[in-house]
Amino acid sequence: PSALARFAERFGGAKSKPTIVHAVDSVDLTVRKGEVLGLVGESGCGKSTLGRIIAGIMPPSSGEVLWRGRRLSELSPRERRAAKLRIQMIFQNPFASLNPRASVAEIVGEAPRIHHLIEGDEGAYVDEQLRRAGLDPSFKSRFPHQFSGGQRQRIGIARALAVQPEFLVCDEAVAALDVSIQAQILNLFMDLREQLDLTYLFISHDLGVVEHLSDRVAIMYLGRIVEEATVEEIFSRPNHPYTQALLEEIPRIETQKRAYTALKGELPSPLAPPPGCPFHPRCPNAFDRCKMEKPALRDVAADHRSACHLNDR
Ligand code: SF4
Ligand code: MG
Questions:
Q1: ipTM (interface predicted TM)
Q2: Secondary structure (DSSP) of 66-133
Q3: CA of 283 to the centre of ligand 1 (A)
Q4: Is the Cβ atom of 52 under 6 angstroms away from ligand 1?
Q5: Candidates 222, 285, 291, 292: which one to mutate for ligand 1, based on the most atoms within 8 Å of Cβ?
Q6: Rounded distance between C-alpha atoms, residue 215 and residue 311, angstroms
Q7: What fold is seen in the domain 31-214?
Q8: What is the Cα 157 distance to its own chain's centre?
Q9: Is it the case that residue 33 has pLDDT exceeding 70?
Q10: Is 94 in the pocket of ligand 1 (CB under 6 A)?
């Protein structure tokens, strides 16, 4: 089945005749060279699907992904292979994507060897990638199960760096890690950004995680971008009620407990998204128009877009 059909099955679509669900719908998103764009929303909102489409792993059923201003679908096979190497994905569970029978040296060295990216000695090349990812190269003959979760994520990062990427799509890359390890890995991402001029799409369900590393933030709800702005704007002047609710959910040390849990109710099934504004069943500000008409993403300030009818009132 197609990726979208698999997505439908995961959300309870009929197994014999998969329903095509637009996990991502009417999204227009630009990641600018050198920036960190945080993509935030609850699990099941379509962030991973969008990340895979942007990374070129999953083709969109309609629409286009442009890489440096050119459509991915119009590149020659050779150009597309080159673009795919420049865009690398880092996943939540690196263990699942690390071959358990391959040593770290094999895991990190394989892709650059196949793609002829190594000039000189492969061992030295692998050592350099491991050092960049904060791993001791003397452990490179070991296997993935001999490492901790944080170290495995570093192996995944070393493997991605080994193909000399320009753009990293990180999908919940720290979500499975302890908080102290999360901070180390986030710092590593930021150091690598400086050293290697990387661009990031940083996908997380946790607005608090993206706060300190993003330049801009896009908020996703049921397959759509509902707000997009600089990180300062999102945190100081959130426009969309969903963004406001997500901000309320960030546990703040100074307040000890959450003052008010704004996000009531479950995320509706993407198989049957609510009519009108998809957030209306959970929105404390919903009014009549919200149940009938889907709000468009519009400018509300400089470099700040939001999709909410309240902006017309
Ligand atoms: Fe809430 Fe209406 Fe705005 Fe949707 S359009 S977020 S329901 S106020
Ligand atoms: Mg996901």
A1: 0.96
A2: EETTEEGGGS-HHHHHHHHHHEEEE-S-HHHHS-TTS-HHHHHHHHHHHTT---S-HHHHHHHHHHHT
A3: 6
A4: no
A5: 285
A6: 24
A7: Rossmann fold (3.40.50)
A8: 15
A9: yes
A10: no
The token duo for 104 is 């770290």
Tell which residue, 121, 102, 122, 107, has the closest CA to residue 158. Answer: 107
By residue count, the chain amounts to: 313
Residue 119 neighbours by CB distance under 10 Å: 6
In sequence order, the β-bridge partners of residue 298 are 306
What's the rounded Cα separation, in Å, for the pair 202 and 89?
Answer: 10
* pTM for this entry: 0.88
238 CB within 6 A, ligand 1: no
How does DSSP classify residue 273? P
- Measured from the CB, is residue 283 less than 6 Å from ligand 1? yes
pLDDT tens track for 203-246 = 999 998 899 899 999 999 998 999 999 999 999 999 999 999 99
User: Residue 155 corresponds to which tokens in the numbers above?
Assistant: 């192996």
SS3 184: helix
Positive or negative, the Cα torsion across 191, 194, 195, 196?
Answer: positive
| pLDDT for position 57 | 86
Residue 119 near residue 106, CB atoms below 8 Å: no
Q: Which two tokens stand for residue 308?
A: 């909410």
- Name the residue of 227, 279, 294, 300 whose CB sits within 8 Å of the most ligand 1 atoms, as the mutation to test its pocket: 279
DSSP state of 279: T
Segments making up each domain of the chain, as ranges = 31-214
